[in-house]
Every structure is written in C-alpha cells, then in structure tokens.
TrEMBL record:
Protein name: Ribose transport system substrate-binding protein
InterPro entries with a match to the protein in the record: Peripla_BP_I, SBP_2_dom
UniProt subcellular location: Cell envelope
Single GO molecular function: carbohydrate binding
GO CC aspect terms: cell envelope
Length: 313
C-alpha cells in the first residue's frame, strides 16, 4: 500500500471541495485527551499548524478511550461545522467507519492516525499515519525471548480488544512468541486503557502465576499499571517486563529497572505529520497513503541518547 494519491485522484466530491477549501479549521480528534501520549500528539499538531497560517487547528477527544460514542459525536460535530479537514485516531475500527464515510461524502479529507479503520473503508480517508504496530509487537517479542529465554510463561496485558493498533501490536507479539519459542502466553487481559484496572489485573496475575518469566504491557496506561503492580509485589527485576509508549512514569520505570524496555511510538510525529498531510491535500499536493511514524525500543542503556529523547514525552 504505497501508491501516491492526490485530491484530484479521489472522488469528484472531495476533489471539488478540496479545491475551494484553501483555508479553514483542521480538527484533530484523538482517542482521549486524558493521556500524555495523546497530549504529545497535540504538541505535534500545534507545531505543524504554525507552518500553515491559512489554517487553524482544534484538538479534542473523549474522556476515555472506551467512550466510543462520544468520539463519534465529536467527528459528527466537526463535519456539521464544516471543518476543512480531520485528523482522527479512531477508538473503534467499526464504529468510526460510518462517520468517516460521512466526512468523505461531505468533501472533508481525513487523515487516520495510530489505529486503522475496519477493512473496506480505505477509500473514505486519504492517508494513514501509524507505527507499524505488527513490527513493534515483533520487536518487543524478540527482546522478550532474548532476555527471558524461550520457555516459560509470559503474560500479555492489553488494552481495548479489536482496536486496530491492538490487533497488530498484541497479535504479532503473541504470534512471534509462538513461532519462535516454547513460551506459554497467559492472557491477553484487557484494561480498557485504565491504569487502575491494569494494576489490579497484573496484581492478580502475578499472584496466580509465580512462575512468570515475562510480562508485556501494550499501551501507556496499561504498562504504567503493570509496572506499579510489579513494584508493589516486590518483583522488579525478577521477570522481564516490557512496556509500550514513553511518558515520564514509564521512563522512570526503565531507569529503575522495573521495565527492561518500553517501545515508544512517534506520537509527536503523528500529530505533526497528520496536520501536514491534511494541509498538503487541501493545497492539492500529493501524499502517500501510508506514513510510518516509527517506534524506538527505549532501554536504560539508550534512554539518554538523541534517538530515544526525540520520541519520549
């Protein structure tokens, strides 16, 4: 999926609208505003809009990632007020598809970030910006095997079942373990991206599985809850723990040795490149239909290097 697309190559309604929508609001709508990860997306979007004086940018999202209907309503509101373009991180691949189709039919270009929509909807948005979540899951699994060994139990702490990023990230982590080791996977368990839920789940799993050799926390709030449970159980350093995302809490856990590593996405880049992509589309320029925003495995050894510092937040 590497073809070039332009507004002129999309449906006539979008091409016509884009030709006249030379200025206006770019609405950035994320899964929740209550997360350092998504606030870093906001920082990237804010940085990008400074280079597009003809446009304004708004940033919004529901109170939690599980408030899917609230996110649908935010997109509907953006369409109703006639925004020039939308940058959207869909919380649910199915539920957000109809409203993205409506944006397309209204002549509003959409850049999807972080998580894909359900298959069959790619004609309704113009580009997809994301970490290659499958590759990231495989990297985490390879590091797990290298550090913990190829036999034993590894628990998987996930977030919202069926979300595009989760399917690739957790699915490929589990698949890599099964194809490259004799590790038994415990889980996945779903925190609904709630730190307290992840903490309680991890506490129970650690108590019930004293022989765990490793554990994987697949997004920011899940990994924080997982790490805190490991600390409270006094098991830091006794099993291989790998997190995902890179806020201050997770950085501290890497530095203290609670986590061997955390896989950090380019969240700033999602916001920055997403807004730039919409601005390009509105200007009639070409964009690729997939933009890889990357991932860095941050460890105690590399956390202070420029490569890690450029993605941490």
């Amino acid at each position: 999926m590497k073809k070039l697309i332009t507004t002129a190559l999309t449906a006539g309604v979008l091409a016509t609208a884009a030709s006249v929508a030379s200025a206006g609001e770019i609405a950035v709508i994320v899964k929740t505003t209550n997360s350092s990860f998504w606030q870093n997306v906001n920082k990237g979007a804010t940085a990008a809009i400074e280079g597009h004086a003809e446009h304004t940018m708004t940033f919004n999202g529901p109170a939690s990632e599980s408030a899917i209907n609230d996110q649908v309503a935010l997109v509907e509101n953006a369409i109703n007020r006639g925004v020039a373009g939308i940058v959207l991180a869909p919380s649910d691949p199915e539920s957000l598809a109809p409203v993205v189709k409506r944006a397309y039919e209204s002549g509003i270009p959409v850049a999807i970030i972080d998580s894909a929509l359900a298959e069959g909807n790619d004609q309704y948005y113009q580009t997809f910006l994301s970490t290659d979540n499958c590759a990231a899951g495989q990297q985490a699994a390879a590091m797990m095997i290298e550090d913990a060994g190829s036999t034993g139990k590894v628990a998987v702490m996930s977030y919202v079942a069926g979300v595009g990023s989760e399917v690739g990230r957790v699915g490929c982590f589990v698949e890599y373990l099964s194809e490259n080791s004799d590790i038994e996977v415990v889980g996945p368990f779903y925190s609904q991206s709630q730190m307290a839920t992840a903490l309680n789940q991890t506490t129970d799993i650690l108590a019930a599985n004293g022989d765990l050799i490793g554990i994987f926390g697949a997004n920011e709030p899940t990994a924080i809850g997982m790490g805190r449970a490991i600390e409270q159980a006094g098991k830091a350093g006794q099993l291989t723990a790998i997190g995902f995302d890179g806020n201050v809490d997770l950085q501290d856990m890497v530095k203290s040795g609670v986590l061997l590593a955390t896989a950090v996405q380019g969240s700033f880049q999602m916001g920055e490149l997403g807004v730039n992509a919409i601005a390009d589309i509105l200007a009639g320029n070409s964009v690729t239909d997939f933009i890889d925003t990357g991932v860095v495995m941050v460890t105690k050894e590399n956390i202070d290097t420029p490569v890690a510092q450029n993605v941490l937040y």
